[in-house]
Amino acid sequence: MRYDPIDPQLFIENRRRLAAQLRPNSIAVFNSSDVMPKSADGVHPFSQQTDLFYLSGIDQEESTLVLFPDAKEEKHREVLFLSETSEPIALWEGKKYAKDEAAAASGVKTVYWNAEFDPVFRPLVLQAERVYLNANEHLRAAVFVETRDARFGKWCREAFPLHRYERLAPIMHRLRAVKSPIEVALIRQAAGITGRAFRRLLGFIRPGVWEYEIEAEIWHEFLRARSRGPAFQTIVASGADSCTLHYVKNDKQCRDGDLVLIDFGAEYAHYAGDLTRTVPVNGRFTPRQRSVYDAVLRVQKAAIEMLRPGNTLEAYTTEVGALMEAELIGLGLLDAEKVKGQPKEQPLYKKYFPHGTSHHLGLDVHDYGDKFRPFEAGMVFTCEPGIYIREEGIGVRIENDILVTERDPVDLMADIPREADEIEALMGSKK
Description:
Elements: H1 9-19, E1 26-31, H2 50-56, E2 64-67, E3 78-82, H3 87-93, H4 99-106, E4 110-113, H5 117-127, E5 130-133, H6 148-159, E6 164-167, H7 169-177, H8 181-202, H9 211-224, E7 229-230, E8 235-238, E9 259-264, E10 266-268, E11 271-272, E12 275-280, H10 287-305, H11 313-330, H12 336-340, E13 380-383, E14 386-389, E15 394-397, E16 400-403, E17 410-411, H13 420-429
Parallel strand pairs: 1-5, 3-4, 5-6
Antiparallel strand pairs: 1-2, 2-3, 7-10, 8-9, 9-12, 10-11, 13-16, 14-15, 16-17
Helix pairs in contact: 1-2, 8-9, 10-11
């Protein structure tokens, strides 16, 4: 791993919190992600299933965590199963976890090799009344392949049909929505790496550079800061494509007079940063670009102040929508009289601001969270309003990562340039 070792107390505490949510005499099973094939003998880079990482810190394929808080033998209340390494594997792929190393990283004292799974797991599950199984139940999930968790669930139901089965996802969504201080520190680190990359871009962007060259600068800064790379596919959208919300081709040359919208974030220890900035390619906003930019910034600043305990996503969205309506009227994009008579379910501002303002952030860039749950201290949200004027080829989005606290919201990206004057000054100073 490129990142510094994580205090295993994080994972010990996460398992304790999960155990408190399980029904009596229940066993819970978490499986790693698959290694996904490309073609021929190629595979995609491995990325750990985030629930397993959240509970164990184990960053290796073919791993399984079994939790059985009421197991008769204490050593079997938390169990890790790992692939046993060998000399050929070490030669071709590199070092894997030894049992003692996995125990030290996770705080799980009992570690078996995968070859021992059946003789260990079978007597354990026969002691239990319920089996908790994991699945991807994210509202935006698009699952096109059968996961290791799904295959295990099929096997388990066939092997033990008389057990009662329960869902882990609702519990994990509740737990992961609120971040611990260690998690906040890791998100801060991801945000800091992301900010350093943005400052690098301010000295690089100019007319004639290609979008993929900008992306390359981001990768350079991420990798040299011990990030594995971007937490999600980087958006570098110049000109009219700044109005395409998920533009990822990044294959055009940036032109004088255009804006370039950059949505990117570093991954550090599996935790994500998520930043969007929109800058003028030539270092100076036109008057119209500046007016749109300042409008988005005013909405963002006001929206950040709403990320407080007790507020709800529904109320938050309504308030942000009202702010955006006022700004769009001021920009001459909406008619005030038509806004008064608009259908509540189809607000007119959606033509220019079609996406949500915030999402949970953590181990996944669109992290777990219940949209009906009021905001709580420890939650981390993005705040990313935008205005997209397709007929003018102007798209502006500004995004920061915000920690909800018992008092004022804390901007984890407060030190990353955001004001138009500051951006122009930094771009001009490095030309």
